[in-house]
Amino acid sequence: MQLRNMFQSVFGNKEPPKTITSYKMLNDYMPTFTPFSGDMYDNDVVRTCIDAIARNGAKLKGRHIRRVNGEINKTQSNIEWLLQIRPNQYMNSYDFLYKIISQLKSNNNAFVYKHTDRGVITGFYPLNFSQVECVEYMGEMYV
User: Fold this and answer.
1) 3-class secondary structure for 2-25?
2) pLDDT in tens, 76-99
3) With contact defined as beta carbons under 8 Å apart, do 115 and 121 qualify?
4) Residue 47 gets which letter from DSSP?
5) How far is CA 42 from CA 68, 116, 135, in A?
C-alpha cells in the first residue's frame, strides 16, 4: 500500500484533467482552423502549392513528335513553334503552360481550344470553364 502511494505522489493520478480550454505554443503562434468552403483555390496554402507547381511546369518546352512504326518522324509543322514560342496572339508559352497547369491542378481538368485556319493549326487557347458538356456531331466529339 505504501508503494502505491509513493507512485501516486510522484506520477499523480492517471486520469486526464477534466477541462482544457486551449494550448499556447512556445513561439507565440496561435493555430486557427477554418471550415472548408468548397472552393479549394480560396485556401492560400493550396494556391501557393499550385503556383509553385505551375511556375516550374511552365518552364518546360513542348515538342511535337510523330511516331511511325515506333520510330520518331521529323515533321515540318508549326505546332512545335506554337508550343515553344507563341501558342496564340495573346500569350507566350510560359503564360500558356502556367494557365493550363493551374487549371489542371485546381479543377482536375484543363481544356485547350485548337484554332485552325484552312486545316492548319494557327493557335492554342486555354479555356476557362465552369461547366462542360460533350456532344457528338457528324461523328466528331465536341466539348
Assistant:
1) HHHHHHHHHHCCCCCCCCCCCCCC
2) 778 888 988 999 999 999 999 999
3) yes
4) H
5) 46, 36, 32
